[in-house]
Specification:
141 residues, mainly alpha, 4 helices
Length: 141
């Protein structure tokens, strides 16, 4: 069973990794914008940064709460967080479509989906490692 210290470290690590990934991807988008200013990538990047950081903070906080109440619920948290993120992504892109219109949505979709897939990979790898370490702790006892 993961102890409180392990949970705190995992939450902190998830949060810091999320911020670093967002910063790195944002730098790539800014570099692309500097190379191709006609693509108008700054507004989509800002919207995507807000989405990414909000979801990352929320997942780290909820992970802390779920893990404190019992680590047997981590599998359920992983599944629920993935589904909720997908729902929020669809909601966010629909909002962008309604605000920006059909002709201006392509940069939003490209930037958002690039961030989304990178964060999906990060989420999967991170929680696979957490769940595997949890399984190792259970086998050792």
């Amino acid at each position: 069973m993961l102890n409180t210290r392990d949970v705190e470290k995992a939450c902190r690590r998830y949060f810091v990794q999320g911020i670093l990934i967002t910063a790195f991807l944002s730098l790539i988008v800014v570099a692309l914008y500097m190379q191709f200013p006609e693509w108008n990538l700054i507004a989509p990047m800002i919207m995507t940064d807000i989405f990414s950081l909000t979801v990352c903070i929320a997942e780290a906080l909820v992970l802390r709460i779920v893990a404190k109440h019992g680590t047997e619920n981590l599998h359920n948290f992983f599944t629920a967080a993935t589904g909720l993120r997908m729902f929020l992504a669809l909601f966010t892109l629909t909002g962008c479509y309604l605000v920006e219109g059909r002709d201006a949505i392509l940069p939003y979709c490209v930037v958002f989906m690039s961030f989304y897939f990178v964060f999906l990979i990060h989420h999967s790898v991170f929680f696979t490692r957490v769940l595997n370490s949890h399984a190792k702790c259970d086998k050792e006892k």
